[in-house]
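=== Structure Prediction Worksheet ===
Name of assembly: unnamed complex
Input type: mixed (protein and possibly other molecules)
Chain count: two
Listed entries:
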Amino acid sequence: MTDKLIPTKQMPPGLQVDQVDDRIMTLNVGPQHPGSGHMRIIVRIDGDYIVDADPDPGYVHRGEEKMAEARNYILNIPHLERPVIHDSCNILYPYVLGVEDLVGIEVTERAKYIRVITAELNRCIYIQYWLAIYGIFLGHSTMFMWPAGDRELLIDLMEKITGARVTHSYFIPGGVRNDVPANFEDVCLRQVNYFEKRIKEYADVFYDNPILKARTEDTGVLSREDAIRLGTTGSVLRASGVDYDVRVKEPYDVYDDLDVHTNVLKAGDSYARSKIPWLDMIESCNIIRQALEKMPKSGSIRTKLKPNPKGKDEEVYRRVESGRGAAGCHIISKSKPEPYRLKLSVGSFRNLIALPYLLKGEKLGNMPAVYWSLNYWPVEADR
Amino acid sequence: MSTAETTPPPKATPPEKVEASAPSFEKSFIDQITNHFSDDVEVEYIKENRTRVNVKKEKIVDVAKFIKDNTPFDHAESVTGVDFPEDKEIGVIYHLGSYTDPAYSKQVLALATRVPREENPNPGNDSTKLSSLREIFYSVEFHEREIFEMLGVYFEGHPDNRRLLLPEDWADLPPLRKDFTNKGR
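=== Predicted Assembly ===
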């Protein structure tokens, strides 16, 4: 691929023309194709086999980073969660932690626990949505209906807490926006226990299903060395046998008080990559139960912030574990109410680099199984 | 890990005070880098688990290679490009992390450099160029492509300097430069 991209005539960067072989057919999957999300994958195929895949994101690029430079630290909250509305708490988390460092405020103990609980609930909501899509693209319509239905349980719970079904805008520097409702502990515990019972049933219909195994096992294998070299993150990394979870390795808020188990599988194939998020949901239920037990029953839920707070004159890089892997937020502040530069380093964008490696040599029919196993969210990657 | 460590220092003195208290763990690789490159690099301990290496753009490949070969940092998590119009420079900051060594899993090493900035950019054909780290840290591939289109920093030696997120026919300024203003604001 690299040889081909060197043009015969010197063209300006970005306008190089690719020379195409007669034998090779180029196929554009996306950006409107439902099998790719809002993203194009330029696949070159030789017969039925993929010779080369070139991901082309950017169809849902919104310029979140540029917008952030014009808004103050509070006004940035609602639009920064837009890249992944299904995981809005986790995508906001590193930003909020970073702003707390810059502004220099403490978070109350109760707010930290509420944050962890809502972040874990949100992780489950996201993974259920992803699982539904993964199921339907493998032609398994039950696996579309079940997660999409069970997801409502937690969405209802989040609606009771935050007032919104998906776009919560719940985390703010200093704590959370509003307190949890009365008898929240009981309701949450009941919902989570039922939810866990439900998702464990997915094993029978999906994860132990011989058809699914035949389609996903040994397809798109990413070795441990490659997973590290390519800098992948989240479920892609952990499915390749690397034990790395930001919640454990660099605990934020109260994760160091909780017992978090990291799910690691060694196979590195599409099956392992699709199983890790499901195991993560079960782990999330454990975390929520622990947090509910340890959460202070009363107390302040946020530290009051000065209106229009100014950040210190420094840089901060914070990261959390989102539903798709580590989400980092790099804020450069220049003693102004707005960030000078804000960079979101998100799991989807980091995992995208693995796609050409995984698809090379696969059959075209395996493309959805491999592509969706990356736990990729096009809107988040484009930001 | 909370904000507890970062709050107390009085506003006037922070940098020197924090530098002095670099823990022995961070000190080991900070010394390793400073001993090898002496005057070419400027290593500062920022706070717990965060270290920053400032380096001239000519030396970035050497320093990155040294870090890759001699310390457990094995991948780039994030690459930030940032425009400094008043300094006539564009900053590029690589955040490096480690998956292989559990002792280093908390650490993030920021490798920062600056390249000259042109008043009238002509991406790819002006002096805003930097050597690519793609051969050393493979994971920077898409990050560098993004910085090329968003700030006009051309990465020499990058095999695939095409647009990534912007449309192919984008003919305006690189949008993350400060002189590109959001429409309607």
